[in-house]
Automatic annotation (TrEMBL):
PROSITE patterns linked to this entry: PTS_EIIC_TYPE_3 (PS51105)
Cell compartments where the protein resides: Cell membrane
Keyword terms of this UniProt record: Cell membrane, Membrane, Sugar transport, Transmembrane, Transmembrane helix, Transport
Higher taxonomy: Bacteria, Bacillati, Bacillota, Bacilli, Lactobacillales
Pfam families from the UniProt entry: PTS_EIIC
Source organism per UniProt: Furfurilactobacillus curtus
Domain PTS EIIC type-3, residue spans: 14-461
Database matches in InterPro entries: PTS_EIIC, PTS_EIIC_3, PTS_IIC_cello, PTS_Sugar-EIIC/EIIB
Protein name in UniProt: Permease IIC component
Length: 488
């Protein structure tokens, strides 16, 4: 009784003191805009991942044939214009959702955010010659990606030019959009700009800062005039910010955000501590009946998706190693390990329920959960078994994803398995298949091992809970029989 009272006390404290402020934060306008706005990027991430695989086929003979035929370059073009411009989809989607949730015509706000995002960055890129002759330079490549002049030869030829020509050929190329900032490197800036544009655009419309045209004017035309003042103010402010940073600091807003915010935050998320926090947080919120996956994803995706994109760039360049800056914890680490077969990695419960359970409740829920679990969905267990607020299963529900997160981090850190390659396998991709897609055959084997770990960790607790349910069912059956006998 004392133990049960203690558990109720802890649950009451969590529900009254911890969850309300967390839920209040998660349901704020910016976080809802971030969460729902990023959904618009998913088709491009997944389709782009297919092109990423095709441009880096792991079978050498096939890869060489595609490279020689020129198809690798075509697949690279497709990858670059889908997955490679991830920040564009993010900044438009976030501003769009923010304004839409406020009840206004949202597309002009999304386009305004895109314009501001482009305006706040230096429209220049590094000279190809600088890249070719720099540290670890690639040399000059042909359209098929083959080296036609080594980095050493390029450097020796450039050094023979007059100094003024050397300076010219190595100067940045201006008046171009640098696609580096359109990918994962510009993601945090895209999130900030998308939220700020959505908030300020909505605020100005609420204050009545808009042209009101006669009713006779078609709605499609009137909507654009409505957007003119808020869009004009936002873009004017963006221009002054760009001008101030360019003049006074010789930089741009995206570079500052990347150095001051994104790099440190990626470092924190891409650490053993980050693995522990993420692995624990999902189960923690779910245990108290709150959708842990949505809460954690809404916050962590801001840093994990750029990690995925950065790994994809390295994988595409054939440089996917930790020494070259590859990240261990990516969005796929979260989706395809911490949430493997569903929050809490409940594969072990499925196996027990289908093959070893004796109670009718456990067996029937197991049959219902079997197919969804293949696609990483386990709501039937969370609410039907239930796992929510279930003290019998709390320990494996918390510890299994935590163990998998820590062990997977260590497996990558110590080079037993390679870093995740940046391919964004949909979270519903079945286990082992997703492992192969995101990290090759070694990762597929490791995923299979994590499933076995889930079986081992859940088994003793599931058996104890099953015996408890069986005892209750037998008691109920005995009570029903006695009542039937009494009636007869």
């Amino acid at each position: 009784m004392q133990e049960e009272s203690s558990k109720k006390g802890i649950g009451s404290f969590i529900n009254q003191k911890i969850l309300p402020p967390v839920m209040k934060f998660v349901n704020t306008r910016p976080i809802k805009a971030l969460q729902n706005g990023m959904v618009y990027a998913l088709p491009f991430i997944i389709i782009g991942s297919i092109f990423l695989i095709l441009s880096n086929v792991p079978i050498k003979s096939v890869a060489d044939a595609l490279k020689a035929s020129g198809w690798t370059a075509f697949f690279t073009q497709a990858y670059t214009t889908t997955f490679g411009v991830l920040s564009i989809w993010a900044v438009v989607g976030i501003a769009y959702v923010y304004v839409k949730n406020e009840g206004y015509e949202a597309l002009p706000a999304g386009l305004t955010a895109l314009s501001a995002f482009l305006m706040l960055q230096l429209l220049q890129t590094t000279s190809p010659l600088t890249t070719a002759i720099g540290k670890g330079g690639t040399g000059i490549l042909n359209t098929a990606g083959s080296t036609v002049m080594s980095a050493h030869n390029v450097a020796s030829h450039v050094s023979q030019l007059p100094h003024v020509l050397q300076t010219f050929v190595k100067s940045p190329i201006t008046n171009v959009i640098n696609i580096t900032w359109l990918g994962g490197q510009g993601m945090v800036a895209a999130i900030i700009i998308g939220i700020l544009v959505g908030a300020s655009y909505s605020k100005m419309l609420k204050l009545g800062w808009k042209f009101t045209l006669p009713e006779q004017v078609p709605a499609s035309v009137a909507d654009q005039f409505t957007a003119m003042i808020p869009a004009g103010v936002i873009l004017m402010v963006s221009m002054f910010i760009y001008a101030g940073l360019k003049t006074l600091m010789h930089t741009d807003l995206l570079s500052l955000i990347y150095k001051i915010l994104e790099l440190p935050m990626q470092g924190i998320s891409d650490s053993l501590l980050g693995a522990i926090v993420i692995g624990f947080a999902v189960s923690f919120f779910w245990f108290f009946g709150v959708h842990g996956g949505l809460i954690v994803a809404a916050i962590a995706s801001a840093f994990l998706i750029p990690n995925t994109a950065a790994n994809a760039v390295l994988y595409h360049a054939g440089k996917l190693t930790l020494a070259n800056g590859a990240h261990i914890i990516t969005n796929e680490f979260y989706n395809n390990f911490i949430n493997l077969t569903g929050s809490g990695i409940t594969f072990g419960l499925v196996i027990f329920a289908v093959f070893m359970a004796k109670s009718e409740q456990f067996k029937s829920i197991g049959k219902i959960e079997l197919v969804p679990a293949i696609f990483n969905i386990n709501e039937p267990f969370l609410f039907g078994l239930p796992l929510v607020m279930n003290p019998f299963l709390a320990i494996p529900f918390f510890l299994t994803p935590l163990f998998v997160a820590i062990s997977t981090y260590c497996m990558i850190y110590f080079g037993v398995v390679p870093p995740l390659n940046g391919v964004a396998a949909p979270w519903t991709t079945p286990a082992v298949i997703s492992g192969f897609l995101i990290g090759g055959w070694k990762m597929a084997i490791w995923q299979a091992i994590t499933l076995a770990v889930s079986v081992i960790m859940y088994f003793p607790f599931a058996r104890r809970y099953d015996n408890y349910l069986l005892q209750k069912e037998q008691q109920k059956a005995a009570t029903d029989d006695s009542e039937t006998t009494a009636k007869d």
